[in-house]
Amino acid sequence: MNGLPLGILIEAGVAVLLATTIGYCMILNVRLSRLRTDREQLQKMVTDLVGATDLAKQAISGLREAAEECDLTLSARLDAAERFTVDLAHHVNAGHAVMERISKITRAAGVTNETPPEGGDGRARDALERLSSMKPRGVAA
Questions:
Q1: Number of domains present in the structure of the chain
Q2: Each residue of 74-92: pLDDT tens digit?
Q3: d(Cα 92, Cα 88) in Å, to the nearest integer?
Q4: pLDDT (tens digit, 9 = 90+) per residue, 23-47?
Q5: Distance separating alpha carbons of residues 5 and 93, to the nearest angstrom
Q6: CA gap 123, 133 in Å, rounded
Q7: Which of 24, 69, 76, 114 has the fewest CB atoms nearer than 10 Å to its CB?
Q8: Residue 19 belongs to what domain range?
C-alpha cells in the first residue's frame, strides 16, 4: 500500500460510515417528527369525526321523532277528512231527497207560470220552476 497505514484506511472507512449513519439519523429524525405531527392531526380528525357522528345520530333520532309525529298528525287529519266526506255525502243525499220532495209537492200543488206567488216579483216562482225541473244527480261517496 503506498505508504498509507492500514489503520488510517480503516478509520477513514469507519468515519465515512459514521457520517452516513449520522446523516441517515437526521433524515429519520425529520421523518419521525412529521409522523408525530401527522399522528396528532389524525387523532384530532378522529375526535372531530366521532363528534360529528354523535351529532348526526342525534339529528337522525330527531328527524325520526318528527316523522312519526307528522305521520300521526297526517293520519288524524285523513281520518277527519274521511269522516267529513261521509257526512257531506249524507248531507248531499239528504238535500237531493228534499229537492225531490219539494219538486213533487210543487207539481202536486199545480204551480204554473200563470200564477205568480203573492207579494213577489217573480223570483220565487222562477226558483220553484228550476227546482221542479231539476233532476237529482248521482253522489260520489
A1: 1
A2: 999 999 999 999 999 999 9
A3: 6
A4: 999 999 999 999 998 998 999 999 9
A5: 128
A6: 15
A7: 114
A8: 7-133
